[in-house]
Amino acid sequence: MTQSRCLFTSLVLAALTTIVVAAPGRIPQGRATGGEPFRSFRLLDQKLTLLSNQQSALKAALGGGGRVNSSSSNSSSESAMVIMRRMSSTTTAINRIAGRLVRLYQNRRESFGVRMFTILRSRAQVVQRDVSSVRRARTLSDASLAGKRLDEHLVSLVIQFQAAAGGYGATHCLPGTRICCQPKRSQDMLPGEQIACKWACVSSARACGGFLGPHIPQSSAESRQRSGSK
Hints:
single chain, three-stranded antiparallel sheet
């Protein structure tokens, strides 16, 4: 049972990593993408991809067995410690980005945005604690147990990122409208998602039931047309 669960976690993580890596190609180009939260989504995408790669490298470094937090000069142990320091740095960056979005939506008084990125930040903090647990492990058994928790919580973090960001790159709004995260109904959410976005176009801020993304600027062509008709 334990082996099946571990295999399932690995397969989910591999699939989600592919989704995260593919995400930048779906990000719409233009002036609107410079706004939040899309700018932070791109940064989070990069950091999560890096974190997943670092986790794979950690598993490879620990594959030879032995102690994780060993006082010996074992090359595998030293390599693992370097990787875990990098993972800690990456999760700190993810936590910082999510925290910045929490403050942004607190200032905007958009409670759904505050909830969304508070959850994301909390999951990043759990992953960071798991990395610390692996670093403190004295035996291979302790490291294996901490590593399984790290696997599960990293999957949880990526799932929640997809809950926030998934599909926004496919949203094509008309000039003058706003991009909005409308809260998904509970029956429409995927397993592991606590809350989730359905990205849509709205004509005004009042029409957004969740939190707002960028405003789509009027095109220069439309501006010239309006000017000529006056």
